[in-house]
Design a protein that fits this description.
About 35% of the residues lie in helices and about 20% in strands. With about 350 residues, the protein is α+β, with helices and mostly antiparallel strands. The protein has a 5-stranded mixed β-sheet, with helices on both faces. It has a 5-stranded mixed β-sheet with strand order 4-9-8-7-6, with helices on one face. Strand 6 and strand 7 form a beta hairpin. Helix 6 packs antiparallel against helix 7. The longest helix has 19 residues.
């Protein structure tokens, strides 16, 4: 757990001020205050794990986020030249419901494909350290989606962000910062409602977001097969993946997709087609009135943190997961496990 001995008094003052200010800013996102802590560095333990897996500290990184499972994955390029999983981190808190963020104040955490540059890292965050997802991206802006300052950060509090423990986000921050110090200009974040299996898609077949999720699944499937970062474009009002456009990348995300050829490996194309057929087979028949999952009260948290919240209470848990001791956001809602009856 990071320690902040020289700034305890300042942090207490900032947190008290932030708690009041948060009432006004929570609707737009997870904002940041200037602090002066040194950014976290890679630990010897993480460096050793990278070496064991054939990865270099400066090799490219990719992040995947899954709401339903409340997990964040860090992938890095190994000696094969492809991405391999380095580590999974439990998400302490995310807010809203499954589905993309569309407007300021809906409390939804984003779903989609994002690219994070070095300038989007914040070592001086109100919530220890953070990086901005870049919501809304080009497609979301074209669709009229609104919101700002949607982050991955420390402290177990969310109003549209993905909140980790200080220890977790510190480690994540150090890993992505080191990659961006190398040749990687930006790293891709793939944010999903759940692990995009055909079975999970079918379980949510009554959801209004199903068509959007089927698009996301194309990028998910491509990565699952190739272990290469999918090239993400936007046209026709949707994401498109690994296409070589004959006259350059489309500039209008809402205009029809221009002429292109597939730039994806044949086995990935076959996987996408197979998965689409599997989904069609599973969702055949009457569509349920509601998903087989219970409705979210407001977002979720990983089961390990839900257990801690039950045992320690919101105040004690806040002190355990973050040096800022920032209050757990809507703890009653976090305790309402939407999958308890599944």
């Amino acid at each position: 757990m990071p320690a902040f001995p020289s700034l305890k008094a300042l942090r207490r003052a900032c947190v008290q001020t932030a708690a009041i200010a948060a009432l006004g800013i929570a609707l737009s996102g997870c904002m940041a205050l200037d602090m002066t802590d040194a950014p976290p560095k890679l630990s010897s333990k993480v460096m050793a794990e990278m070496a064991r897996r054939g990865m270099k500290a400066e090799s490219p990184v990719l992040v995947r986020i899954f709401k339903q499972e409340s997990e964040l994955e860090i992938w890095k390029v190994d000696r094969s030249g492809k991405y391999a999983l380095l580590k999974s981190y439990p998400i302490c808190r995310w807010s809203g419901d499954l589905g993309p963020k569309r407007k300021s104040g809906d409390r939804h955490a984003p779903e989609g494909f994002y690219h994070v540059t070095k300038g989007m890292l914040n070592p001086n965050s109100q919530f220890y350290v953070s990086f901005n997802l870049g919501y809304p991206n080009r497609l979301e802006s074209a669709l009229g989606y609104t919101g700002e300052a949607l982050m991955v950060h420390g402290a177990c509090s969310s109003s549209g962000c993905y909140a980790m423990t200080d220890q977790g986000v510190g480690e994540i921050y150090a890993i992505v910062a080191k990659a961006l110090d190398g040749d990687q200009e930006s790293f891709q974040v793939q944010a999903y409602p759940f692990r995009m299996t055909a079975a999970n898609m079918a379980a949510h077949r009554g959801d209004a977001n199903l068509a959007f999720w089927r698009v996301l699944k194309e990028g998910y499937d491509a990565f699952e097969v190739t272990r290469r970062q999918p090239k993400v474009s936007a046209c026709g009002g949707r994401y498109v993946f690994d296409r070589n456009f004959l006259n350059g990348e489309p500039t209008d995300p809402l205009a029809p997709c221009p002429e292109a050829t597939p730039g994806i490996e044949p086995q990935a194309l076959a996987k996408i087609a197979d998965e689409n057929r599997a989904i069609d087979a599973l969702i055949g028949g009457p569509v349920p009135i509601a998903s087989s999952m219970s409705a979210y009260v407001d977002g979720g948290m990983h089961p390990v943190f839900r257990t801690l919240l039950k045992q320690a209470g919101a105040k004690n848990m806040a002190a355990k997961v973050s040096g800022t001791k920032y209050p757990i956001s809507r703890p009653e809602a976090a305790l309402a496990d939407p999958f308890a009856g599944k």
